[in-house]
Amino acid sequence: MPEASQAGVQDTGAVPMDAIAALIEARFAPEDAREAMEFVKAYYAAGLDELPAGGPRRLAGAALGHLAFARRRAAGETLVDVFNPDIDRHGWQSRNSVVMVTTDDRPFLVDSTVAALNQMGLALHGLIHPILTVRRDADGRYLGLGGAGDEAAGPGGRAVPESFMLIEVTRRPDAAALDQVRRRLIEVLDDVAAAVTGWQAMRDEIDRAIADVESLPDAVLSEDLRSEHAAFLRWIRDDNFTFLGFQDCRFSEADGQGQRRVEVLRTLGVMEGTGGDDGRERPRGLAGFTLHGDESFGDEPVTITKSRFRATVHRAVPMDYIGVKIYGPDGRVEGERLFLGLFTSAAYHSNPRAIPLIRR
């Protein structure tokens, strides 16, 4: 009889490796069996406490299925599959739907994925997240585990930490529903990659904004206010704000009707490519806006508010919006640096009397 998933989770972290090894040795040639066992041992190294209960066949099928799915992965590629395991097709089965992810290891992967699944109404029934150093050749083909540096993978290859996520969720009965989950997770994980990749560049933009605020003439902003606004920007830079997106905008000269167009010069993180039209609603910031006259979003250089867009990275809550005006030599507002992200838990636990701008 095929093994079915049982209710509950494993009552022990012990992995039945001897039984799994017997299954693998009966199925594979010796060299392939050694590779398979190396992967299975690493895959379950942290134990089984967060997985639904199941026997050796189920555990072997899940791990080896993940290895087969991740056999080839281009540099930077994110692989996502969502399916209902079937004993004939996959070698194991579950009463749940299964999410498999393989991608470069980076922050925010698990919490962003879980938040997206919860938003889709999918309850979690199990999750493991091994991070394995994988050797791949120049074409992204799997060579094995371990190795120090890309030289371990040969010419043109790579050896980098990869994140493997196996998540069991509320069962979705049909292929269309499963594909909808898969496509949404790809969007979310692409946003995670964009935010993490753009993080340092966004911090550099905050440093530019600080320098610009500090250089404002007294005619635009008093010395006390310059100091306070610059101090706030330093405060968010110092681990009180998770930078997720950025947009650098410039305002054109007014036309005959007194309207000024917004030109987007640079985008980073989740706002990268916001000028495109891929059918997905994205936080566009000021892209496409038209300003009327000298409209400048308030008199002070820094604006703090909430965006209407929920974060796809880290926490599924409305993102915080921090705008820093860009002034011309004549003191007129010429543009804005727009930062989207989330105030950190450290920020929320800070004494308001110690937070620049808020303490005024």
Describe this entry's structure for a reader.
With 360 residues, this protein is of the alpha+beta class. It has two domains: 17-190, no CATH class; 199-354, no CATH class. Helices cover 31% and strands 26% of the residues. The chain contains nine helices and twelve strands. Strands 1, 2, 3, 4, 5 and 6 form a six-stranded antiparallel sheet that branches. A six-stranded antiparallel sheet has the order 9-8-7-12-11-10. Helix 1 (17-27) packs antiparallel against helix 2 (30-43), helix 1 crosses helix 3 (56-69) and helix 2 (30-43) crosses helix 3 (56-69). The longest helix is centred in the middle third of the chain and has 23 residues, at 175-197. The radius of gyration is 25 Å and the shape is elongated.
